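Sequence, please.
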């Protein structure tokens, strides 16, 4: 995985170095191989500043010709003695991004898919980096609270805003304007008059936490037998495939919900893959009835903010259950324990 960031003509690199130690230290720390989400099959070598430790999977920003690109540390770079690019031709990484590393399981999936489909590894990696905004530092959100001071001029529009904020919950200007059916100018005018005060909130809201102990439906004898078998597979914590066979309306959803509950109890994350057409209100209501909260959703119609928040929540482990289309398979699950298809 050695390379030249200017010529893009790196010598081939053996697979035996694509997986080094979990952390690159000592002599290895001077040279790391970074896979870029481009139509490239080989990672490129960069230098790490003295004293900095960069684990495999770390997202880093690196120079590539005249531009900057974000990539993933894929392993140790090649030493010159092993055919690597001369140290003097290598450039240092620009920055380590403040997000959790790409899990080893996802990196292995990238390698496997690239080999199986004869695709470029960088092109496959691009699917796991489909939300560039998730790699940037989170920005604080501006919200407003009522100060209790009534403005000199209290119009019906201003009154609606103040009545909304009477519950003590902070809201952003756009949210207030939408709920009170006013313009954002009304909100800003109240703030300027001293009736509202501005506060900063974390940019990302924590997702709801599903409760595996939440009361479940009573299962039939056949459902119970199938649920027990599925929960045993989850408890084994090893790879296995189980086919749950049954006609429409036979209660398969309640059965795999028991496997989901077992994974949650074990502290693992869960991915439920459904066609987008199946992500109906009815299915989500059944999920909420079983676990007491909504899952995180992932599909092509999500807005950029929702995609960013979900991606980061999955990477940090805060998102315990994701329900989504096929592209959800490329989310950076920190502790994935069950996939339901």
């Amino acid at each position: 995985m050695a390379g030249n960031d200017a010529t893009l003509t790196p010598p081939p690199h053996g697979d035996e170095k694509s997986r080094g130690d979990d952390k690159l230290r000592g002599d290895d720390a001077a040279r790391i191989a970074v896979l870029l989400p481009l139509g490239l099959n080989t990672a490129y070598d960069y230098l790490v500043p003295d004293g900095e430790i960069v684990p495999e999977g770390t997202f880093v920003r690196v120079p590539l010709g005249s531009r900057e690109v974000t990539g993933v540390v894929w392993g140790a770079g090649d030493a010159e003695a092993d055919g690597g690019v001369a140290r003097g031709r290598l450039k240092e990484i620009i920055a380590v991004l403040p997000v959790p590393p790409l899990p080893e399981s996802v990196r292995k999936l990238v390698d496997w898919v690239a080999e199986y489909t004869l695709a470029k590894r960088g092109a496959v990696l691009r699917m796991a980096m489909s939300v560039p905004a998730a790699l940037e530092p989170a920005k604080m959100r501006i919200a407003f609270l009522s100060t209790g001071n009534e403005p000199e001029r209290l119009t019906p529009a201003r009154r609606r805003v103040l009545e909304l904020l009477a519950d003590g919950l902070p809201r952003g200007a756009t949210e207030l304007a939408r709920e009170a059916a006013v313009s954002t100018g009304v909100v800003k005018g109240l703030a300027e008059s001293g009736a509202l005060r501005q506060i900063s909130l974390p940019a990302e809201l924590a997702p709801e936490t599903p409760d595996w102990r939440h009361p479940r439906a009573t299962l039939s004898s056949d459902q119970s037998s199938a649920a027990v078998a599925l929960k045993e597979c989850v408890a084994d914590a090893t790879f296995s495939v189980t086919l749950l066979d049954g006609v429409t309306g036979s209660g398969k959803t309640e059965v795999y919900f028991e496997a989901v509950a077992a994974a949650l109890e074990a502290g693992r994350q869960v991915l439920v893959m459904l066609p987008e057409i199946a992500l109906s209100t009815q299915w989500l209501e059944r999920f909420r009835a079983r676990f007491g909260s909504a899952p995180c959703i992932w599909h092509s119609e999500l807005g950029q903010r929702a995609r960013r928040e979900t991606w980061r929540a999955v990477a940090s482990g805060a998102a315990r259950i994701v329900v989504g289309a096929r592209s959800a398979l490329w989310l950076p699950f920190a502790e994935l324990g069950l996939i339901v298809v």
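Residues 141-201 form one domain.
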